[in-house]
Amino acid sequence: MPSTEPAGPAGVETVRGRVPYSALGVTLMHEHVFVTSPEIQLNYPHLWQEDERIADAARKLTALKQAGVDTIADPTVIGLGRDVARVAKVNALVDINIIVATGIYTYSDVPHFFQYHGPGTLLGGDEQMVSMFVQDLTEGIAGTGIKAAFLKCALEGELTPGVERVVRAVAETHKRTGAPITVHTNPALRTGLLAQRIFQEEGVDLGAVVIGHSGDTADLDYLQNLADNGSYLGMDRFGLDILLPGDQRVQTVATLAAKGLADRMMLSHDASCHIDWFPPGVREQVAPNWHHTHIHTEVLPALRQAGVTDQQLDTMLIDNPRRYFEEHR
Question: In this predicted model, what pLDDT tens digit does every residue of 288-326 receive, in sequence order?
Fold first, then answer.
């Protein structure tokens, strides 16, 4: 589908501007710089140390770059504390491509801002989410000039009216702009299939969709079904062993690769330089491997030992991310 974006050099939008698709290189497709609670920061500023957090994030992303990663896709959207101006401060200190997203992250209700106007609400009217998402993709975010390059929504459990509204708004934005989609899902509840059904109803190209957190399960039939429907599998929580042990994550990827599905998988951690959802030290104690360099230091050697070839790793880390962005804008 043609994009509504003005014509320009071929490439993908990043925090530092548009870069050629060939410059994406090794890409982790689901990583966060910051996941925060802006109202807490605003009202309890002693809980947030801006300069310290920016310096720490720059150190962590520099280590990631040194490990061999060229690009991260950061699906931090409304509901997760998106602040692209803050991310730009980090990016000024480290030579890595950061691709940002637009959308809304909710497991139940839409933010109060949307509750009384829009389709099916008290006041009715057009869906303002769509115009906001389109603006982020085509004009830029919050006056920064930084453009989103993909869409994000969540389908964690029950398909509430609020969740469905966001998912369908993301679908409509995809149809208007061509921008690809990443959807947070819960494999235990098989919500990836539900997301695919809704997207199909809305006329979305399922080849433009990453079914996020597919790697949280070893259910090969479920994963095969998702892949057969045409979407990418987000094997994107390496290090979060509390949800599925790392050896099972590795074996699942290796088994699917042996079945010829390397071209349907994306690898990542869903890690953050800083996330304020947990008290200090808890994340490191509960999930010590959940950090941005875990794949390169531990997972890739394990995948090779499990029979995954270097060519298959390049497919998952280089070719698939490039195709995801290049073919759907």
Answer: 999 999 999 999 999 999 999 999 999 999 999 999 999
Structural domain of 289: 12-326
d(CA 318, CA 322): 6
Residue 296, classed as helix, strand or coil, is helix
Q: Is the dihedral of CA 223, 227, 231, 233 positive or negative?
A: positive
Among 35, 71, 79, 42, which residue's Cα sits nearest to residue 283? 35
**Is residue 2 one of the residues assigned to a domain?**
no
Confidence at residue 280, expressed as pLDDT on a 0 to 100 scale: 87
With cut-offs at 50, 70 and 90, classify the pLDDT of residue 10.
confident
The two structure tokens encoding residue 25: 């290189």
Mind giving me the DSSP string for 147-196?
Answer: PP-EEEEEE-SS--HHHHHHHHHHHHHHHHH---EEEEE-GGGTHHHHHH
| Burial (CB count within 10 angstroms: exposed 0-12, middle 13-18, buried 19+), residue 66 | exposed
**Number of domain units in the chain:** 1
Rounded Cα distance, 200 and 192, in Å: 12
Whether residue 103 contacts residue 57, with contact meaning beta carbons closer than 8 Å, is answered with: no
Q: Is 185 a domain residue? A: yes
pLDDT category at 4 given cuts 50, 70, 90 is very low
Q: The CATH number of the domain where 61 resides is what?
A: 3.20.20.140
Element (H or E) spanning 285, and its range?
helix 282-286
What CA–CA distance (Å, rounded) separates 185 from 213?
A: 6
How far is residue 254's CA from residue 316's CA, in Å, rounded to a whole number? Answer: 12
Tens digits of residue pLDDT in 266-279: 999 999 999 999 99
3 lies in a domain? no
**Judging by DSSP bridges, how do beta strands 265-267 and 232-235 pair with one another?**
parallel
101 found inside a domain:
yes
Strand partners, 78: 104
Q: How many CB atoms lie within 10 A of CB 109?
A: 14
Q: What is the mean pLDDT of residues 174-201?
A: 98
